[in-house]
Amino acid sequence: MTRFQLGKRPAKRDARNFKLASILKKKLALPVSYDCDTNLGVKIKPQKFANDSWGDCVVASRAHQTLRFEYFEQKEVLPITDDEVLAEYWLEQGDITTKNDEGLVVLDSLNSWRKQGWKVHGEVYDIYAFAEIDRTNHEEVKTGIRHLNGACVGLLLPTSAQCQFTWYLRWNVSKWCDSEPGSLGGHCVYLVGYDSKGPICLTWGRKQKMSWAFFDKFCDEAYCIVDNRDNFVEDSPVDVEVLDGYLQSLK
């Protein structure tokens, strides 16, 4: 029997968030379909990262993305464990000893990832910056996935999503089951690709397809990540000078 846990707390809004459109150099070409793993030339087995037992979806999403970032840089699949994901989850809850299971705010967790990083396999991995995606713009969502190795998104999942996942169906707006946003709960997923019908995410141990109608109705926050500034100096989709200016303004 498939077990489901969620863990995304209500979205936090911050007017200071960089916008993806503002840090891109130009409009970029997009294929009809795309998969990060195929592009990287690697097969990474989908993992649950304990999100079937704990509400650690925000850090689980980070783990999926870290695997892709570090394969891009090191050509190695990091052996990220459930225990490492849970340790970071409890740390961001405020006390690793109490093992609270109250979920996380995506924006707060992204800020923690950027400022403190997180420990995996004896090393600390952080990110250079993140930018908010206009989730109403499908081309921008696809741009984040294609040109920045995926995207982190928050969903207000309906109960119907659990039924569809159980039956290996694409997430869509259901006419037969509860499709009220958030009736199942808040969930954070990593978008690893897209096809002609919609985005594809990693969650609960497998790749899950969704329709654009589902994404439009249930996505309430979306971010792309600049992992390492050095990867974006030459022939880059990101305008590093503009990005650096934004980061300096935050200080």
Average pLDDT confidence is 90
The major β-sheet equals:
7 strands, antiparallel
What name does the CATH topology carry?
A: Cathepsin B, Chain A
Strand tally is 9
| Uncertain ranges | none
Number of helices: 9
Give the termini distance in whole angstroms. Answer: 49 Å
Radius of gyration: 17 Å
Assign the structural class, choosing from mainly alpha, mainly beta, alpha/beta, alpha+beta, or little secondary structure.
alpha+beta
The outline comes out as: globular
Element-level helix/strand string: HEHHHHEEEHEHEEEHEH
Count of domain modules: 1
> According to CATH, what is the class?
Alpha Beta
Helix amount, in percent?
Answer: 25-40%
Going by CATH, the architecture would be: Alpha-Beta Complex
Structure characteristics:
globular, 34% helix, Cathepsin B, Chain A, 251 residues, alpha+beta, 7-stranded antiparallel β-sheet
Can you put this structure into words, describing what you see?
With 251 residues, this protein is an alpha+beta fold. It has a single domain, classed as Cysteine proteinases (Cathepsin B, Chain A). The strands form two sheets. Strands 1, 4, 5, 6, 7, 8 and 9 form a seven-stranded antiparallel β-sheet that branches. The protein has a two-stranded antiparallel ribbon with strand order 2-3. Helix 3 crosses helix 4. The longest helix has 18 residues. The protein is globular. The mean pLDDT is 90.
